[in-house]
Structure formats: C-alpha cells, structure tokens
Specification:
With about 290 residues, the chain is of the alpha/beta class. About 35% of the residues lie in helices and about 15% in strands.
Length: about 290
Amino acid sequence: MEANNIPLLSPYKMGRFNLSHRIVLPPMTRNRSYNNVPQPHAVEYYSQRTTHGGLVISESAAACDISLGAPVPQLTADEINSIINDFKVATRNAIEAGFDGVEVHSANGYLIDLLIKDEVNNEIDQYTGSLESSCRLALEVTKAVANEIGADRVGIKLSPFEYPNPETLGLYMANELSKLGTLYIHMTEPRMIKNEEGHYETPRCLSPMRLSFKGTFIASGGYNKSDGDKAIVENYTDLISFGRLFLANPDLPKRFEANAPLNKHKRNSFYIKDPVTGYTDYPFLQVAS
C-alpha cells in the first residue's frame, strides 16, 4: 500500500509545523543520561528514530530538582513562584539549544501531576482543594512557558485517567488550554482492560476532550497500526504516539508503510543504564528481514 493511502502516513499541519505523517515518538523514561546529562548515545537513539517531517518528543528534562516529583516537601508561595520561573528558564534553554518547542510534562508522578492529584502538602489554598485549584500550577506553568516562546511552540502531556474524575478534569484542562492557544495536548488513554473474550484492550475515552480542545490532539496508549489508522480516519485524534513500538522499531513509519513485521520490545532492558542494549541496538527493517 502506498504511503498516501495509509492514514497514519498522511501529512498534517500542526500550527507552524508541517508534518509528513501522524506517527509521534513520545517521551519515555530511558534512564540513559548520567547525572541528568544526556550522553552521545542519546544522539544516536534519536537520530535512529528521526524522519523528515516527523514529530519527536525527547525524554523529559527537569526544570528544577523539585519538579521531579516525590518526595515533595510542603510548598510555599515563594517556592511555587520559583518553580514557575525555573520552567521559564528551562524553556529558554531548550530553544537556545535548538529545539523547536517544549512539552510541559504534567503526568506520571512528576510535580505538576502530584498537584493535580492533590498529593502535595502546600500552604497555598489557590493550589489545592478544588479542580480549578489543583490544575492551577499546570496552567500557570504552561502560560509562563508560552509567554517565553509563544503558545504555538508549546504542548502539554496529561494523563487524566489516573485521577478520580478523569473526564471532568480532561474537559476542564482542554478548555483552559484552548484559551491559552496551546499548540497541542498529548493525552494518555486509560489502562488496558480484559474484554468478554478474555483479550486485553485499551478503552478509547478521549473523544470529549478531543472535541473540546482547539489545537492539535495527540492520543497515546496501546495503539497498533490498524487501530491507529482507524483513529485517524474517524477523526478521533490528529496524531498518535507509539512508545514501545517506536522504541523497538526505530524505522516504525517505514515498517508501517511496508506492512512489515515488527521487532518485539525487550521489557527487561527498559530502564537499565547500558548505552546500547535495549536502546540503540534494535534492528532496522533491512537487518531484521
């Protein structure tokens, strides 16, 4: 099948960025940096997974030590202001280093995520107790980052199904982020469940948030080629990020185009420190075949 007949390989205009396909490399915790400093093997890892006109989102970098999340001490007003400023400085540094934009990581147990979950003790009522208060820091950081480089270069990652009222939270954030002109939302689906046939599947629950958000929508979570194509055709999302598939198949768009077999990921090497094993040693199509 030709690439222009494969929905995932169709072009897409994301604000100022002209993408050649809808397949996104998401940020993944790879633990290959030493003392939080990326090493030369990171260059090879991302180069392997780079395509002309493809969207690559790198591993997260800490804006400050406390932004890494638990254990988080009680926060004061001065500390919150300092955190917001640290994100602004980190954003300027990223652009000066050559990145096209930044994604504000607001999921997976990092500081902003903990505040959304109301799991941080702080002295400031404006940041705890209600939906609006719990989401305040995420929105203030996103706004501050957007003021530094323009909202058309800023995305945010959210995982609403880790919270008690995911749809309410997701809709609130989608609407508020639209007001800020945020370039994209990168949102994670719920965890897999076992269906009546005994097979595991990921519930597709992002439609209300997707319809409420005015920018580009990126869906993440358990997708393969067939349900990825289906999601694009049905306008369920604009782009799809593939974590384990892209990790194990550095030439994933090419494999999708050729309908080629896929490498299996090596779970036991996800978080090791080795600069090669489970990182840059996955074979390309011509080697695998």
